[in-house]
Design brief:
alpha+beta; five-stranded antiparallel sheet; 19 strands; single chain; eleven-stranded mixed sheet; 4 helices
C-alpha cells in the first residue's frame, strides 16, 4: 500500500509542522484531482471546521461528515474528520480527537495512570512506533464494528511529517530530541456477512533529552478507513485525497501559538511554585529531625530547654522529677525544684519549650 500523506496536530510540538506543511496541502490536493480524477468516483466539496474554524478539508460530496477541533487541554487541540458514505458501507477518518498525549512510564508514574501538567492531561504508556500504534489503534477502533478482526500485514514506513531524528532545542543541560516513526496496518474482518478491509496509518513522535528521565510522545499523524474489501483500493485513494487537502487556517495557527506560549508560561510558573513548596517541606522535615535529635540529646544529658518569661532568654535547666525550674540571673544557676529556692526577684520561674 502506498503511504498516505497527512498532517494532524495533536501536541504543541506539531505546531511547527502545521505551518511548514499546511501551505503544501492545497497544492497537493489540486494535483491529485488531475492525476486521480479519472479513478476517484466522487465529487469533492470543501468543508470548514465549525468548532474553531481551525481547518478546511475536501470531503466526498453527499457523504455524512462529522467532527472538528476538540481540546483535551489549552495546549492540546485534536482534529477529527469522519466521512461516512451514503450507504454507510465505507467510513473514512482523518485524525481522532480521543487519542491523548502520552508519557513513558517512570518512577512514580506507572503505566496506565493519568497525569496532568496543570493545563493538559495525558496517559502514562510505553512508546509505540507508528506501525505498532497502527495495530493497537485498529484493534480499538474496529472492535465494535467488525467480527473476526484479523491482522493481514503491518509495516514500518519512513516518516512523512517530520524527520526521523530532529534536535528541537539546545539548553545548557543538553539537547531535546524528537524521534519519529511511521507505519501502517491492514486488517480483514466481517460485518453483516460481508468481508471488510480495515486500514490505519500512523506516525508517532518521541521527545527525549539527555538531562531528564521524562520522555513524552504523541501521535502526530493518523488516518484510517473501513470499507468493503472489493472497494478498499478506492477507499484508500479517497482517504489519501481528502487527507492531502487538509489545510490549517493561518489565523487559528497564530492564535494557537499564542495559547501555547501562555500555557507554557503557566506550566513553568506552576512548576516553580511546586518546587518551592517541595523545598519548604524538605526544610520543615529537616528542622523537625534536628529538633528531635536535640531533644534526645537533652534527655541523654539530663537537661531541658527553657525560656525565662521575664527576659525572653533561653537557658538549659536540669531535667528532674519536680514540676518547676528556676533560674538566678545573678549567679547563672538553674535548679529543678517544687518550691522557689529564694527571693522571687533573684529566682525566675522558667518555662519548658522545644528547641
Amino acid at each position: 500500500m502506498r503511504t498516505i500523506v497527512f498532517l494532524v496536530c495533536g501536541l504543541a510540538l506539531c505546531a511547527g509542522n502545521a505551518v511548514l506543511h499546511g501551505g503544501t496541502a492545497a497544492t497537493s490536493a489540486a494535483s491529485d484531482k488531475t492525476q486521480l480524477g479519472g479513478q476517484l468516483q466522487a465529487d469533492w466539496v470543501v468543508v470548514h471546521d465549525t468548532r474553531e474554524n481551525a481547518f478546511s478539508i475536501e470531503v466526498p460530496k453527499g457523504w455524512k461528515v462529522s467532527g472538528g477541533t476538540y481540546r483535551l487541554g489549552v495546549n492540546n487541540p485534536r482534529f477529527l474528520i469522519d466521512m461516512m458514505s451514503p450507504d454507510s458501507g465505507t467510513d473514512l477518518r482523518v485524525g481522532d480527537s480521543a487519542v491523548p498525549a502520552f508519557t513513558v512510564p517512570h518512577l512514580g508514574a506507572p503505566e496506565g495512570t493519568r497525569y496532568s501538567t496543570g493545563v493538559d492531561w495525558g496517559i502514562v504508556a510505553r512508546y509505540l512506533l507508528g506501525k505498532d500504534f497502527a495495530v493497537t489503534y485498529a484493534q480499538g477502533r474496529f472492535h465494535d464494528t467488525c467480527q473476526d478482526l484479523r491482522l493481514k500485514s503491518a509495516e514500518s514506513l519512513p516518516p512523512v511529517l517530520s524527520p526521523e531524528r530532529q534536535v528541537i532545542a539546545r539548553t545548557a543541560q543538553g539537547e531535546v530530541v524528537n524521534t519519529t516513526a511511521a507505519g501502517e496496518a491492514l486488517f480483514r474482518c466481517v460485518a453483516n456477512g460481508q468481508e471488510l478491509a480495515a486500514y490505519v496509518w500512523a506516525e508517532t513522535t518521541l521527545t527525549t533529552s539527555n538531562f531528564s528521565v521524562i520522555r513524552n510522545w504523541g501521535v502526530t499523524g493518523l488516518v484510517s478507513f473501513l470499507a468493503p474489501r472489493a472497494e478498499a483500493s478506492q477507499a484508500l485513494r479517497m482517504l489519501d485525497h481528502s487527507a492531502r487537502s487538509f489545510t490549517l487556517n493561518p489565523k487559528w495557527t497564530a492564535r494557537q501559538a499564542a495559547l501555547s506560549r501562555q500555557s507554557t508560561a503557566l506550566v513553568l510558573e506552576q512548576t516553580r511554585q511546586n518546587v518551592a513548596a517541595q523545598q519548604q517541606r524538605f526544610e520543615r522535615m529537616d528542622a523537625e529531625r534536628h529538633r528531635q535529635s536535640m531533644q534526645m540529646d537533652d534527655i541523654i544529658n539530663g537537661v531541658q530547654w527553657t525560656v525565662d518569661p521575664a527576659t525572653g532568654q533561653h537557658h538549659e535547666a536540669p531535667l528532674g522529677p519536680n514540676p518547676n525550674d528556676f533560674y538566678n540571673p545573678k549567679t547563672g544557676a538553674s535548679v529543678n525544684s517544687t518550691l522557689r529556692p529564694g527571693d522571687p526577684f533573684d529566682w525566675h520561674n522558667l518555662t519548658a519549650v522545644p528547641r
